[in-house]
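Entry for the shared binder. Reason: the reviewer on the internal report wants the predicted structure included alongside the sequence.
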Amino acid sequence: MAYDLYPRRIETDCLVFERVSRETLDPFEFYRVVTRDDWLGGATEHMPWFRFDRLDEVADFIDHAEEQWADRERAQYVLRSKEEERDVVGVTAYAPEWETRRAGSDIVLAKQYWGREYGLERASVFVELTFERYDLDAYYTTCAADNEPSRRMIEKYVEKYGGRHEGLLRHHSSRPSGDVTDQHRFTILRNEYEETTEDAETMAFDATW
C-alpha cells in the first residue's frame, strides 16, 4: 500500500478538509452543491474548470482526484463548515512541485460563504505545511487581475507570512473557453516565513494522515 504524503483530513477552527475520494465524497451531494446558482455564478467566474454540468463530470472529477493523490501530484479536498452543520462550502487543492521545491494551492468557495475568512484559514494551513512538513522553499499563488475578492484574501495571508506581490503576469493563463487572462503572482519564501513565525504558534490544526 502506498504511503499517503498528504493529510486525509484536516480540521481548523471553522473548517474540516476532507480528501476528495470515492470513500469520503458522495457524488450526488457534491453535484447538488456545484449546480447551485451561487456556484455556477460568482464562485467559479474566475475558476471555470470547477464548473460541472452533469453528474458524470462530478464522478470524473472524483476519479481524477484519486489518481493525482496516488501519483503525489495534488491533494484535493472538499471544505465543510463547522458553522453550517458540516455543509460543503467549497473545494480546495494543494499542489507541491517537488523538483522546484515549491507549492501552491487554489480554492473555490460558494459565494454565500464569502466574507467569513474561510479562504484565509485554509491558506494558512497550506503555507505552514509547505515549510514545516514538506520542507519546501517557496509557496506561491496567482489570481486573475479582475478577481478582487481573491486578491484581498491572498494579500492578507501573504502579508501575515512576510511574502510579497511579485507583479502582474500579462496574458498568462488560459481558460477552457480559450480566453487568456492576466494574473497577479504572490510568493512567500522560506526565510520570510521563518522570520515572521519565529515567535508565533504554527501548525495549530489537527491533521490525520
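Summary line for the report: The CA atoms of residues 127 and 139 lie 6 Å apart.
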